[in-house]
């Protein structure tokens, strides 16, 4: 898990140069976010997160915007939520927060400040975004990375925190643990991430799998890992190779 510092001046200024243009000072509301602006905002978040989903650490090609404080939460509850310590104080778009109204003159709901506030957005994969949904949980990426760890079986360990439960359950589902465990085994067997990413055909992949599992006679399920869809998923969780490599170097396991 990587810590995401939502108070970064580098990324907030890049992001706000886009979102500031969307604030209509005449009507005190946000203009619609067009495709180009939305893509540019995602680019900033993707750079900030080194290209990984904020929750599952999967490599993102496009990614979806996840709102830390859900869009559905009424802004009147913000002060209470921030007081509870579950969210950063700078979530609200500081330049517009005091001015932007939330209902336009014709009664339509316009963009809330936290809809497009840098401090309230992270990029996630679609699966993590839909699992989180509009739950008011403390994002796990606010935890110090040393407080979050992964076992050899791929299980993820997090500090006891009631606000993480929904996401914790998803991140520890068997399917997610499987890919992490494979990277653990690869690292342990001396198979590198570069070798795995460069293995484009089944023959090369099967050879690596034999090395990873330490056996010539792979099971049917192990053979299936060489299929394009499985291999691409494994590659997308490449971050874990470096995680386990560093853990081994630091003697953390
Ligand atoms: Zn994800």
User: Residue share in helices?
Assistant: 40-55%
The helix tally amounts to 11
Structural class: mainly alpha
Uncertain segments? 93-102
- Determine the strand fraction and express it as a percent band: 5-15%
Give the overall pLDDT as a whole number: 83
The topology string of helices and strands comes to HEEHEHEHEEHHHHHHH
- Tell me the count of domains: 2
Roughly how many Å apart are the termini? Answer: 16 Å
Report strand order across the widest sheet.
Answer: 1-2
Provide structural commentary.
The chain has about 250 residues and is mainly α. Helix 1 packs antiparallel against helix 2 (about 35-50), helix 6 packs across helix 8 (about 200-215) and helix 6 (about 175-190) packs across helix 11. The chain folds into two domains: about 10-145, no CATH class; about 175-250, no CATH class. It starts with 8 loop residues before the first helix and ends with a helix. Strands 1-2 form a two-stranded antiparallel sheet. A two-stranded antiparallel sheet has the order 3-4. The chain has eleven helices and six strands. Zinc ion binds next to helix 4.
